[in-house]
Amino acid sequence: MNKQSRKTLIVGNWKEHENVSQASTLVARLHKLIAGHRDIEIVLAPNMLALQPVSLQIDRRRFRLASQNANAKDEGALTGEVSFAMLRGIVHYGIVGHSERRIYFNESLEDVRDKVAASIRNGIMPILCVGENSEDRSNGETRQVLHDQVISALSNLTAEEVTHVVIAYEPVWAISTFGGELAKPDDVQDCMKFIRNQVKELYGERAAEDIRILYGGSVDDHLAGGYLALDDCDGVLVGSASLNYHKFSGIVEAAYRNNRK
Ligand code: 13P
Q1: 201-206: long-range contacts at Cβ-Cβ below 8 A with a sequence spacing of 24 or more?
Q2: Fewer CB in 10 Å around end: N or C, the chain?
Q3: What is the pTM of this model?
Q4: Which is catalytic among the residues 98, 100, 107, 132?
């Protein structure tokens, strides 16, 4: 596996934080603190309402955008929904199947599969979130859960399409708002390798080599380096620390240092 050929991805998931004017202030601060690096992609995921103004504000040479969710149907009588088709041209990436959506909004394996397919169909790279909860973990079912989530989500894609997917491994118990227990880097590496092997078994060597796998769960500027150094880790998906411009820029710096080791 050639980690160097996969571009490092640092994603800030702002969740339901930062209204339009707060988002604009945060972007202005990130512009001041974060330099562009050719080998690192920096992606911001503000709420749906802030995406459009932020897309006009950002320096596109340094920052890209992701949606936090979107509907799988391109259009329809679906009050309140926004589709991937509508996000074309605004976002490069779309977060799909985040554990908060699976848990609070009852997104099923099939919903996640359809959203991944809709994202790919619309030229938006899905950031597919997978991860076991604490009960799965204590029952020794982590691998089974990861297997089911990965396999079902990718099941409507070709091997070529799979290379455009990013998988974020986010154990639910490690997310700051779900307890925030720190995951040991060795355990994270085991799970990431397991995920890459699942992709290899189903879609072949090339897809497994190209697909990027991120880690998410209480990542901050101090912990980022330890995860980014893992063999199968191609970046991080950051929640609460992404709202703090010092911490988020520190995470980008950690990625820069790690790539130069
Ligand atoms: P925290 O970084 O706050 O743990 O959130 C992780 C997450 O859910 C990112 O999508």
Answers
A1: 202/151, 202/154, 203/154, 203/159, 203/162, 204/159, 206/159, 206/163
A2: C
A3: 0.98
A4: 98
